Each structure stands twice: as C-alpha cells, then as structure tokens.
Structures
1.
Amino acid sequence: MGSIAPSPAEIDASVVKITRSTNLRDVPLPGSPEELSHSYCTDHMVTVRWTAGNGWETPEVRPFENLSVPPTASCLHYATECFEGMKVYRGYDGKLRLFRPDCNGERLVSSAQRTSLPAFKFEELKVLIAKLMQIDGPRWLPKDQPGRFLYLRPAMIGNGPHLGVQTPKEALLFIIAVPWPDPSKKKPEQAGGQHGLKLLASHPDSIRAWPGGFGYAKLGANYGPSLVAHGKAQAIGFDQVLWLFGEDRQVTEAGASNFFVVWENKQSGKLELVTAPLENQLILPGVTRRSVLELARTRLNQSCGKLAPVEVVERDFTIGDVHEAWKEGRIVEAFVCGTAYFVTPVKLIRNDDVDMNMLDAGAERAGYAAQIKSWLEAIMFGKDGAEAHEWGYVIEGESQK
C-alpha cells in the first residue's frame, strides 16, 4: 500500500512565534496628525504564510514593517485580496475586548474563498488578535485611559511570484492595529458629528454591486471602483454615496456602511426599522448591522423610555419609497452603521435635485440610533452591567513589559 500524503496544515494560533520589537514607536495623542493619518501602526503585527503544498505555517507576532511582495504577485494583478475591519476596546473595567470576533472571522473566510484564497478555521482569528494585543495593548490602550480603541485590519493577499491567471499558490494572512480617530469626538460641523451625515444618491450609470457578483464579500475589488463616485460626492460636500441598484433604484448601502431608516408604514401606520436584505448578496453582511437588528428585535419590540416599539423589516425598498415617506412626514430617522462610522445619524439625502432632510419630520420621536449605539457601547467597553455579555470577547494575559 502506498503512503497517504499528509493533509495541508491548518492555522494553529496556540503555537505562535513571537519576536519583540527593540525599537518601540511613540504612542500618538488623540487628535494628533499621526492618529488622523490612519497609517501610524502599533509596534507589532501578525503574519501567517500559506502555500498550496504545505498549508499554513506557524503564525508570527513580529515587529511592524513593510511587506515584501514580488511585482508578479496575483494580488497586484488579479485582485486576490480580502480584508476585515474590527476594533479592540479598552473597557471601563480595565479589560481589553473584541466585539463578536467570530463573525468577522467567518466573513474573512467567506471573502477569501470568493476570491480564490485559502480558508482557515475562523475561530483562530480572534486568538491571533489576542496574541498581538497581549503585547501591544498595554502601551497603546493603557488601563488608565478607558473608552479608547484601536482599529484592527486583518487581511489576506495572494503574494506568490506566479504571474498568470490561476489560483494563488501562496498567500499571506496579516493583522495590523492602527490608532483611529473617534467619530464621536468630532466637532459638530465635521462629517459624522452630532448633526449627522450627508448622503448623495448614486446615479443609474454607477453600480456598486449586482446579483451573482461579490458585493457580499469584503474585497478590495469592491472598493476601488467606487472611490471615483465617493470622491466626487465629497468634493461637493457630501460624506458618502447612498448606493442604489436596478431600474427601480433599490437602496442598498451607504458608502462602506449599512443603511437603516425608521418610518411609519404607509398601509398599517406601524413604526418600522427597515434595511436592505442579504438574500440577493448585493450588500455586505455587516457585523454591526447584524447586532443592530438583533438588539432591535429583542429590546425595541416594546416601548423603551420615550421610544415606541418598532417592527424590524429586512426587505427591498427604493429611493422612491424614501422620497414618498419624506414628503408625507412618515420618516422618524435614518442612520448608517459599520465598524468605522459605528452608528451615525443621517441628516440629509440628495436624490437628483431633491434634498431630503432626515431630521425634521420625526425629530420629536427620533432616538432609536442613539439608544442602539448606547447598548452597543456598553457591550464593547464593558459598562452598564454588560461586562460579561456574550458578544464581548475578553483578551486575557496582557504583557507587563
């Protein structure tokens, strides 16, 4: 009998090679140019190499440095690249937490498979992040400064030297951590401040995603082509593009965020929290989106303070539906959510030559976004009795060095 070839190795985050940096970087102050640059990373990074023949190699926590990628790498030519957006939070109880990291791990694996990159056991992602934060967490998120966070960017690229249209034979998973401006600390006149975002509805000749495509995966290929429209929107004073799809102009996403509206149903008169569905795979299945829906279904199905109950609805709706509800005074509020913008109100939507003010009609009844945001913050930062919530993954074993 012939010998059976060994299976390619899986990622094993319990065995990690650690090389500590001997040249520690200055930790930037909140609001500093370094923080605002979105490019000033912490002292260390995680890398895990994969090859088609042997599978995943031993993960490494190593000093942050630039990657070496051959000019023939498939990520540069064929968009074999995917990524995640996460945050690590310093809680008011002194603990470091991730928010629902297995959801991000699952989505990263799904995105990787959609762009021909290798899969891995998604549960290992949070353990790799924990290894990184055990080293960088104490300096970059000190215990005496609760309420702060770092942005995390797990990513995977096809980095082998093989030019040609083919499935990548080599790949690299890496994780970096970046100090990030807190949108809640921005001045009111800035984008995402207390007055909310301004959205510009996309034109029919510009489409972000389509059925059978990859709008549901977090791929760089989703973002590059959309930046032209984003840049044009910003140039005329808008924060994000509200992406529409199809002849009936269905509302899908707002920039890199999921979009929600609270309105009165025209037929029943009941209050609804409405967002686009996932079935047609046009939108990203956001982790914050998923959490907003679950909290709304379990906590806003009855009165909450001054807030009346709402019914949660995931369905197709059009910009025409939004316009009609706005004209009839049925809109209570609109907001976007995602890791970067968190939960942020929308103050205005421009569709063609019509500016729809989202703050006027339901101002007295609004507050759903703020309430959901406060619930999420309590879980993320371990406060208001949410220290042991199942969505918060506590990172233990921080380095004392």
2.
Amino acid sequence: MNRKGFLYVLLTSASMCLTGFVNGQTNENIISDYNHIPLAGNAFITKGSGAQISRINGLTDWTNQEAVTSVYFRVQEPGKIGLRLQASVGDCTPSIIKMTAMGQHKTVDLGEAKEKLNQELQIEVKEPGYVRVDLQGLHKTGNTFGDISHLLVLQEKGKKELLYANDAEYYYWARRGPSCNINYSIPSDGDVSYYYNEITVPLGQDKVGSYFMANGFGEGYFGIQVNSESERRILFSVWSPFHTDDPKSIPDEQKIKLLKKGKEVRTGEFGNEGSGGQSYRKYQWKAGQTYKFLLKGVPDGKGNTDYTAWFFEPEQKEWSLIASFKRPKTNTYLKRFHSFLENFIPEQGYQGRQVQFKNQWVYDGQWKTVQSASFSVDNTYRAHQRVDAIGGLTTEGYFLQNGGFFNESVVPGTKFEFNTNSKAPNIDFDRLP
C-alpha cells in the first residue's frame, strides 16, 4: 500500500482485532502517527435511533441499522484522504457497516482481524472545508455493531493541521457548536437607559435548542428560544454579581430580586453558566415574523440597578411586561449592547440556524440609532475546536449564523456599518406595564 501523497484513517478493531501488520509495521506504530479524531466530541446521531454518543467513549450502544452516525472534521488544504475507524467488537464477531464520505462509500466488517486491516475509503477533498463521514450498520451477529472511539487521520507532510475537537474539556461545547455575537457600537456618551431591537428568525432556521438573544447587556440577556418541537419561550435573565454556577451558594445580599412580572411569566433562579434570576414566558413565536424587544436599565440610587424587559405582542399590538429585577451591588446604566446566537442542546449541534437583527436604537434622553457593530465568537471557536459561526450584514441590518458545519468564514473582530432609514421607536414609557 503506497502511502505517499495520501491522508489515511485506519479502520481497525480493538482488543484482539488490533493485532497484525500493514506494510511491515505494527498497528500500534502506524496508529501513533495519526490524528485521533474522537467521536466523543465530533460525532452526532443524524438519523434514526438505537445508538449513543458518549462524551467519554464515542459511539456506543449501536443496535439499530437505521441509525446514522456522522463524524465531522475540517480540512484546511485540498488533497486526497483515506478513511478508517478505530473500533471495538466483542470477540471479533462479524459486524458489517457502510462508511460514506463525499459521495463515496465502502462496506467493512468491523469484526474481522488482521487480514482486512488495510481496507480504506479513499476520497478527494477539492477545497478547504468540513468533511462529513457517515456510518450505518448493515448486518451484525452480536448484540451491537460495536463501539467506535476514533476516526484516525494522517495527513501528507506539510499540510496544515486538521480542525476538530481534540480537547476533552471542549467535547460538550464543541457538540453544541460555537456561539457568536453582534456587538453594537453605542452612539452615546451619556447615560443609556433603554435598548430597542427587532429580530427575525428566517423560515427553517428555528431548530430545537436555539437561543436567539435580541437585547444582550453587561449583566444579562433577553430573547427567544426553541425548547422543544412543541414549546417556545421568551427568556429574560440577570446574572448575580456573585460569581458561581450554583444559585444556592449566592449570599442573600447578592441575590437577584424580583420586582414584578407579567402575566403567564414564570420566575426563578438559573445556574451552570453563571447564576442569577430568570424569567420566561411560554409563547409560540413564529419563524419568518419580526418581533420587537425593549430593555430598561437604571440605578435605583441605593447602590443597585433595576432591569426591566418588555416584549411587543403583534397579536395584541401592545407591549407586555416580561419581568423586572433588582441587581444588588450594581450602579450602572445599560452597557455592552449586543445580540447573540447559540445552541444549548449538544445533540442538535450538527443543525444549522440563523437569525437577523434590525432597527437598533438606544435612549439617553432621546432616541439614537445604532450605525455600526462588530462580530465576535466564543472560546470554542477561539480554541479552534469548531469554527462554523459567522456574522455580517443583511439588506436591513445584521445577521448571525452557526451550526451545520458550513464552510464560509468571517474573521472575528470584523466591523460592519449600517445606516438605518427607520424612524425612532414611538413608545410612551409612562404607559408601559
């Protein structure tokens, strides 16, 4: 087998099936040269059920031949590659699977020993971007098709490194996908007490697990999300000044205090990604429709700041209160106006989503329009664990997109300018609920 000029991935079997030689070298010596792409951080069940992705062991409990597992990695330079798997099948019993990538496929018996170790699927990548490798079971004699821990990748010498989740601390976040922000330039040196924004989720982009944040600020966030196929929410939260992921550990004097809430709004505490006060209302917002958000933030004169969020209901044609919270040990007006996009369900990380923002205004005694913004990303992107996130301009404002392993890229920190022709919001603050 001539290895020159090719990128190879071993399709091998663990335990007793890892014996044998290829080109006069032991499997152990060959495998040591490869990029080990862990399925624990780079694979998803993209069709069917009867298989699991373990954050430690990769593909496990694979019993159903209808299940399709997809593994993703990003090639930075064109070239030919070969694909194999590192697998474990009990007692090397026959287990026939199909491996597919870029229109090519190969049928492989995961349970066979050294005689079949040199089988591979060879493909050619013609331009930089993500490669998807699909695995589907065809026939098994045991209880499962086997466990697969890694896709092993060897590149030609001199090629740029592959991009994939290679740090176990990032597996959870990489499967969620990189989060991204549009950071608005506030056109005021004064005390900004209100943020106004409008968002539209395009048709088909409202995937389960998506959070579309309209009015982000230095101490919290306000937007809409898709919790399940049957439930959607308006979500408004404020972080406690006490830094912890456990809300029960927050001292009473640093807890977020509820001042008031709107009808059908539920309130409580949240944790795991910082902690604080949370409010949400179940509301079946629709993709393709534009929604308006208004946020107020003002000091109370006693060393605290009060934050209040309103959502404009198009059906009722009026503003409705979500909630008002007091944040202790805080003395500030609104700062760090931004919008945000994330997926909060790891199993949904292979799905793509997009959101559009328009008509941003701030109020410092008079309404002033936002005319510029910049794009930023989270630690998952910055660590090059996964880079499918972009932001930019639309004909009406700005957009964010993440997930789905697309190949387009926008350099983090890129700045955009957009001069809206829209009129300032016509809001009677005294009549807000």
